[in-house]
Specification:
By secondary structure, the protein is of the alpha/beta class. It has 16 helices and 12 strands. Strands 9-8-7-6-10-11-12 form a 7-stranded mixed β-sheet, sandwiched between helices. A 5-stranded mixed β-sheet has the order 1-2-4-3-5. Helix 10 links the parallel strand 11 and strand 12. Bound molecules: nicotinamide-adenine-dinucleotide.
Length: 477
C-alpha cells in the first residue's frame, strides 16, 4: 500500500490544514479557532498481559479532542500502525462529525498497537479487558464521559468485553451498558449498528443523487442504477456499503481492493461471495481469475464512484493526479490527504467527505446510547398500538369497498407493508436516513449558497465548526 507520499503532512496535520481552510472563511471570535482545533488531551497507556508463557507489553491511546459536549465519543482501533498522531486526527474528525450530524457528543478516539490476527479469541479477550480496565479506571470509558465504539480491527465482540469489564468495575452503575456502543444486540446493543456505517454511506449517496445539480458537478447523471463502483477494504464499512448499493440501488461493484491485491471484473462482483471468501481465506487471492496482485493501482481505474473504506492516506500526492473517479465518497476516515484533496479539487472531482460519509456509525451509536439510558428498546411501547390503528383503516377500506358499487381491492403487499408496525431495525434505519439527509442538506446549503466555498468538505467543516463554536459561546467560554 502506498503510504502518504514523502513531504506530505501527517494525518493530524492534514486534518488541521482542512480545518484551517474552512476557518479562514468564517468569522470566529479571537482565539476560539485555536481552542476548537487543538486536541484537549491524549492518554498513553502501556500495560502487560501474560501470554504464551511470557509478559507481552502493549501500547494504547485514548485521545479526547473536544469536551464542548459530554460524553465524548469515538471508536477504538486495533492496528499495528496506531500512533498518537493518528488517534488525535481521528478524535478531531469525531468532534466535527458529531457536530455535523447533530449527535450530542464531543470527539474522542482510541487505539491499540496490535495486529488482532496474531492472537486467538481468548488472548484478545484478555488484552481487551486489560486495556478497558486501564481506560475505565481513568474515566476514559464511562457512560457520562467517554463512550467508545468499534473501528478498524474491532467489532461487537470487543465492545461486549469492554461493556462487561466496565460493569464488573462499576457494579452499582445502572447505566453501565451505555459505557460503550456497537455491542451485540443480546448484550445491550441495537439492531442495525453493525451495518450502520455502510448503510450511512448508501444513504449519503442516495441523497447526493437526489440533487441533479450536484450529480452534474461530478460529470455524472441519472441515479445510482448501473453506476460502476470500486471499493477499497471489504471490512465492516466497505462490505455493507457495497452490498446495499449493489442489491438495493442497482450499482455495479467492478473492483474490490484488499490487503493482498484486488479483484477486477467489469461484469460486476458478487459482494457476499467475495466477502465470505475473504473471511475463510484471509484475502482476495484465489477467488477467481479476476485477481490482480497489485491492489493500490486499482484505485486509479476508470469508474463512476470510488469508495475508499480501509484506511487513511491512500489517495495522496503520489497518485492523486491519476485518480479517474469523478466522485469519491470517503467511507474510511482520512483516505484523501490534504495535498491530494487540492489536486482532486483542481480536477473537478467531487468528494463526499469522511466526516459526513461515515457518520452512520456514530449516529446509530447515539441511538444505542439513548436506548441503554432509557432501558427500553425502540418501538416496544407503540408498535402493536400502531398496527391496531392501521388495521382499523384497512378494515374500514374493505368495508367501504364491499358496500360500494365500484369493485376495488387493496393490493396484497399493501396490506402486508401497511399493517406492520415499525420495530427497532426499521426505526433505526429511518432515524439514520433522516440524519444523513439532514446533514447533507446543511452542507449543501453552504456549498451552493457561497461563492467562496467550492467543495463539500469545506462546507462540512464550516457547518460543524459553527455548531461547536455556538456550543462554546453558549457556555460562556
Ligand atoms: P475493518 O477492520 O472491518 O475493515 C477494514 C478492511 O480494510 C479489512 O477488510 C482489511 O483487510 C482492509 N484493509 C486493511 N488494510 C488495507 C490495505 N492496505 N489495502 C486494502 N485493504 C485494506 O474496519 P472498518 O470498521 O470497516 O473501518 C474501515 C474504515 O472506516 C476506517 O477508516 C474506520 O476509521 C472507518 N470507520 C469505521 C466505522 C465503523 O463503524 N466500523 C465508523 C466510521 C468510520
Amino acid at each position: 500500500m502506498d503510504g502518504n507520499a514523502v513531504n506530505e503532512p501527517s494525518f493530524r496535520e492534514s486534518v488541521d490544514l482542512m480545518f484551517n481552510r474552512a476557518v479562514q472563511l468564517m468569522e470566529l471570535p479571537p482565539g476560539l479557532e485555536d481552542k476548537i482545533r487543538v486536541c484537549n488531551s491524549t492518554y498513553t497507556v502501556r500495560f502487560g498481559v501474560k501470554l504464551r508463557g511470557e509478559i507481552k507489553t502493549f501500547t494504547g491511546y485514548r485521545s479526547v479532542h473536544s469536551e464542548h459536549m459530554e460524553p465524548v465519543k469515538g471508536g477504538i482501533r486495533y492496528a499495528l500502525g496506531v500512533n498518537q498522531d493518528e488517534v488525535e486526527a481521528l478524535a478531531a474528525l469525531m468532534t466535527y462529525k458529531c457536530a455535523l450530524v447533530e449527535t450530542p457528543f464531543g470527539g474522542s478516539k482510541g487505539g491499540l498497537c496490535i495486529d488482532p490476527r496474531e492472537y486467538d479469541e481468548d488472548e484478545l479477550e484478555r488484552i481487551t479487558r486489560r486495556f478497558a480496565y486501564e481506560l475505565a479506571k481513568r474515566d476514559l470509558i464511562d457512560p457520562a464521559q467517554n463512550v467508545p465504539a468499534p473501528d478498524m480491527g474491532t467489532g461487537e465482540r470487543e465492545m461486549a468485553w469492554i461493556a462487561d469489564q466496565y460493569a464488573r468495575m462499576n457494579t452499582t452503575d445502572i447505566n453501565a451498558r451505555a459505557c460503550v456502543t456497537g455491542k451485540p444486540p443480546h448484550a445491550g446493543g441495537i439492531q442495525g449498528r453493525v451495518e450502520a456505517t455502510g448503510r450511512g454511506v448508501q444513504y449519503a449517496l442516495q441523497e447526493f443523487f437526489r440533487h441533479p445539480d450536484d450529480v452534474a458537478e461530478a460529470g455524472l447523471s441519472g441515479s445510482l442504477e448501473g453506476k460502476r463502483v470500486i471499493v477499497q477494504g471489504l471490512g465492516n464499512v466497505g462490505y455493507h456499503a457495497a452490498k446495499f448499493l449493489a442489491e438495493e440501488d442497482g450499482a455495479k461493484v467492478i473492483a474490490v481492493i484488499e490487503r493482498d491485491g484486488a479483484l477486477v471484473d467489469e461484469a460486476g462482483l458478487d459482494v457476499d461471495a467475495v466477502s465470505s471468501w475473504i473471511r475463510t481465506h484471509g484475502g482476495v487471492k484465489g477467488y477467481s481469475t479476476h485477481y490482480v496482485e497489485e491492489g493500490a493501482p486499482v484505485l486509479e481505474h476508470d469508474c463512476d464512484i470510488l469508495i475508499p473504506a480501509a484506511l487513511e492516506g491512500v489517495i495522496n500526492l503520489g497518485n492523486a493526479d491519476r485518480i479517474k473517479a469523478p466522485l469519491i465518497i470517503e467511507a474510511a476516515n482520512g483516505p484523501v490527504t490534504a495535498g491530494a484533496d487540492e489536486i482532486l479539487r483542481g480536477k473537478g472531482t467531487v468528494i463526499i467527505p469522511d466526516m459526513y460519509a461515515n457518520a452512520g456509525g456514530v449516529t446509530v451509536s447515539y441511538f444505542e446510547w439513548v436506548k441503554n439510558l432509557s432501558h427500553i428498546r425502540f418501538g416496544r411501547m407503540q408498535r402493536r398500538q400502531e398496527e391496531a390503528r392501521h388495521q382499523l383503516i384497512v378494515d374500514e377500506l374493505e368495508r367501504i369497498s364491499s358496500d360500494s358499487s365500484i369493485q376495488w381491492t387493496l393490493s396484497p403487499d399493501f396490506k402486508q407493508k401497511y399493517l406492520r408496525g415499525a420495530g427497532e431495525l426499521e426505526l433505526v434505519r429511518s432515524g439514520l436516513d433522516d440524519t444523513m439527509r439532514g446533514a447533507y442538506q446543511a452542507m449543501r446549503e453552504v456549498w451552493r449558497a457561497r461563492d467562496d466555498v467550492t467543495d463539500l468538505r469545506t462546507a462540512a467543516y464550516i457547518v460543524a465548526i459553527d455548531r461547536v463554536a455556538a456550543s462554546y459561546r453558549a457556555k460562556g467560554l
